[in-house]
Amino acid sequence: MKKLSALVLFLSTCFSSAALQAQHTLTSLWMASDLPTPESVLFVADKKSPYLLVSLIDGEGAVADSKGGIARLAPDGSVLDKDWITGLNAPKGMAIVKNRLYVADINEVVVIDIKKQKILKKIPIANSVFLNDVTANSAGIVFVSDTRTHKVYRIEKDEATLYLDNINNANGLKAIGSNLLVGAGSELLIFGPDKARLTLAKGFAQGIDGVEMAKRGEFIVSCWPGLVYYVYADGKIQLLIDSQADKINTADIGFDATTNTLFVPNFFKNSVTAYHLQ
Question: Which of 143, 80, 78 is nearest to 109 (CA)?
Answer without folding.
Answer: 143
